[in-house]
From TrEMBL:
Name recorded for this polypeptide: Flagellar motor switch protein FliM
This protein's encoding gene: fliM
Membrane topology reported for the UniProt record: Peripheral membrane protein
Flagellar motor switch protein FliN-like C-terminal domain residues: 255-325
Keyword line: Bacterial flagellum, Cell membrane, Cell projection, Chemotaxis, Cilium, Flagellar rotation, Flagellum, Membrane
Transmembrane helix as UniProt keyword: no
One Pfam family recorded for the sequence: FliM
Amino acid sequence: MPGEVLSQNEIDALLSALSTGEMDAEELKKEEQEKKVKVYDFKRALRFSKDQIRSLTRMHDNFARILTTFFSAQLRTFVQISVVSTDQIPYEEFIRSIPNMTVLNVFEVPPLDGRILMEVNPNIAYAILDRLLGGRGASVNNVDGLTEIETKIMSNVFERSFENYREAWVNLVDIDPLMTDFEVNPQFLQMVSPNETVVVISLDTTIGETTGMINICIPHVVLEPIIPKLSVHYWMQNTDKKERKPEEFENLQKRIQKAEVSVISELGGSSITVEDFLALSVGDVIELEKRIDEPLTVKIGDIPKFTAQPGKVNKKMAIQILDIIKGGEEDHG
């Protein structure tokens, strides 16, 4: 068992106590020889390492950013969502920690087994509902009296929000979230056994002036197949640049060569007032700022690339490339 690392202040205090006689070195040796017993609660089985918990936190930091963007676009108001904690606790303890009446969204995440629960505090759920129905985002917290229309609106918006969960998991496994249940009473929801270890990620959520929590509960059975991937070694391995095969470069080059781009040849430009523009009629002449003997500018997309001179080929208007514009190719690819 590795020894505990002391800070410099603790070392100074220990040396001071030994020198003044407050503490006896022999007594310290006896304490070291005694077996140290650590209390372990089997009801709170810790099945995930700190490293794995950090990986889950990192994933849900990304999910929180995606949710913030999603709800901002849907609700047209200030939205801020961030991860505040990631804990592993028994399922029974999680159920006891949430309100008696709340919004519970249950999702399957194939190809993984089991189901994931997203619990939304009623304050947040009603603020979202109020904004969707044209209100200011006020919360009445009357979740036990949801009408069929309110239930349908809520379940639809949370189902669409959870579709973004796929993007947060993309580095681990390609999941396909599917909403299977919508409930308001936790006592009617039994996903796993009471003593089953679950990971609970708590998201601090602000919708307009309303604040509350969104909790994501992931049972151990869901994460079990991908536990080896929840390590720093796996994440670092996946961030390393992989060498591409020569044929991949050839295929990429062929696809780029077939890509269509717009070619624009500008005869010239001019500036006029809005009054003159409104007064234009058929037959009017606009004087351009370019002389007839000056080369034209050819743009690829919106980027100047070449100079050219106008002409005709088989009775059709055409241009002949004269030169490459310096900086146009190097600066813009």
